[in-house]
Amino acid sequence: MMRVVATLVAVGGLFLALLSPLTERVIFQPTRGVDLEPSQLGIAAESIFLETDDGVRIHAYFVPGGGERALLYLHGNAGNASHRLPIAARLARLGTDVLLLDYRGYGLSEGRPSEAGVYADARAGLAHLVETRGIPRARTVVFGSSLGGAVAVELAQGQPLAGVVLESTFTSVQDMARRIIGPIGRWLGGFPSVDRIGRLRAPLLFLHGDRDDIVPIALGRALFAAAPEPKTFEVLAGAGHNDIVEVGGAAYFARIGRFLDEVAP
Description:
The structure is a single chain. Helix 5 links the parallel strand 7 and strand 8 (163-167). It contains nine helices and ten strands. Strands 2-3-6-4-7-8-9-10 form an eight-stranded mixed beta sheet, sandwiched between helices. It has one domain (2-263): 3-Layer(aba) Sandwich (Rossmann fold), CATH 3.40.50. The protein is of the alpha/beta class.
């Protein structure tokens, strides 16, 4: 009987060991290199490199906004930072400097993405704004889109930030997996935002499209329910997951602008 138990434990451990890297391969869909240059788009962005606390060299764009506040933009699981340059430029027009970060393995960044790795990348981005650019945490907003929202929640725990914006964000990878592949999804883990969001101390703005078929709005609402006050949940009517900016249009940026003015005037 003991040999049977030991065998089952060993098989279970092997299954989980194989499952973890497989899960990360599914989650992270990076595009290497740069597809759009700031000069092509008429955007005055500075291309910079940062070093993380675990020694990885990552790439970012700094888009000046002329204000005495900053926004750290953490993008979703696919593509690279260059694809988000137009969004960063629109955000900078709201009077805030924007640091648009590429996770390790994305764009021009070194390394290979992992859950622990992207958390380290976000820490490097925040440290750059505070220590190099001289912008206090109390005047810095962290913006996370989709998977970037989960990274933002981890980063913001206990931090005296001005605010946090979570766009199209989910509760956990496990909850997402259960909806997509059923009961087997319980074996998948990672990015447990619903367990962490209660430790945030900054005002929260949630943005979610009511036609999101990748991260259902129900998961966004569940994360919102677990979040502390002050918090606001904004539904973008007719928006899905990948077209939330286009559908939201000027009203989308205006709502973010109001939030910035409330938390870091």
